[in-house]
Amino acid sequence: MVSPIGRMGNDELGPPWLKPLLRASYFIPCSIHGDSNKSECNLFCLDCMGHALCSYCLINHKDHRVVQIRRSSYHNVVRVNEIQKYLDISCVQTYIINSAKIVFLNERPQPRPGKGVTNTCEICCRSLLDSFRFCSLGCKLGALKRGEPDLTFTLRTKHTRDAFHGGSESDESSTPKKIRRTNIFNRMMMDSPAISSDGHNNYGGERSASSGDDATTNISRFSPATPPIFNHHNARRRKGIPHRAPF
User: Fold this and answer.
1) Cα–Cα distance between 236 and 226 in angstroms, integer?
2) d(CA 208, CA 213)
3) Sheet strand arrangement including 43-45
4) What angle do helix axes 213-222 and 177-191 make, rounded to 10 degrees?
5) What are the distances in angstroms from CA 126 to CA 31, 78, 121?
């Protein structure tokens, strides 16, 4: 029987399947299905915590949590969207490989960091971006073994807005588009030169007295009045110019 103190120590160093995941041998022929095609071991079952599996072994791990291990520069990696469901990978640098974000499993020592590098892995001295502390899951585990109090592999519960009906959104995103369009239309109508400078509208009625008279006066001051309609057919002819029929 495991003592509570021992169980607490294992939790602080990550889930029980983390060390077997990092130590397993991948991309070797399966000991059971070695004679079959594509029988290399590139899978790991987090529930069984045994050896690496091949695709033919999955029939014995139905409804289990299985992650796929991949290769990059001869190092084992796992996709972030797979591992972050079960593990907190904060402080570990991620990379984009084949349009997918990945994280390395084990350390990759780098004796001589590149020129101009100001941030390196705290365990293996691999060059990193300034926002990360470790280059792999194994390096973060090594820092936990040293007793770093601010590190953990335990996932924190994320409270979503839908679950608690809380949170806040910006006014721009929460305002319906129809309402925003209506406000724009109202401003366009107010800016139209429907009211002339003499206080009468162009439709024959006087302007009613209201609290918005000052605003309307300011609008009419900047908006030109509608010019009078000039009818060329009813204009009087100039006098003194005789109109004679042609010869």
Assistant:
1) 23
2) 8
3) 43-45, 66-72, 75-79, 100-104, 95-97
4) 70
5) 35, 19, 5
d(CA 45, CA 57): 10
- Whether 43 contacts 51, CB under 8 Å: no
How many other β-carbons are positioned within 10 Å of the β-carbon of residue 90?
A: 14
Question: What backbone torsions phi and psi does residue 118 show, to the nearest 5 degrees?
Answer: -110, -10
pLDDT digits (tens, 9 = 90+) for 93-122: 999 998 999 999 999 988 776 777 889 999
Give me the phi and psi of 71, to 5 degrees please.
-120, 140
User: Residue 220, Cα to own-chain centre: how many angstroms?
Assistant: 47
Contacts 24+ apart (CB under 8 A), 69-75: 69/26, 69/27, 69/42, 69/43, 69/44, 69/105, 70/42, 70/102, 71/27, 72/97, 72/102, 72/104, 75/104, 75/105, 75/106, 75/108
Q: With pLDDT > 70 as the criterion, what percentage of the chain qualifies?
A: 57
Residue count of the chain, please give it: 247
Q: What is the DSSP letter of 54?
A: -
Cα–Cα distance measured from residue 245 to residue 247, given in angstroms and rounded to the nearest whole number: 7
Domain residue limits, the chain: 17-145
Q: Is the pTM of this model over 0.90?
A: no
Cβ pair 189, 201 in contact under 8 A:
no
Question: Distance (Å, rounded) from C-alpha 91 to C-alpha 152?
Answer: 10
Q: Which two tokens stand for residue 78?
A: 């796992």
Judged by DSSP in three states, 9 sits in helix
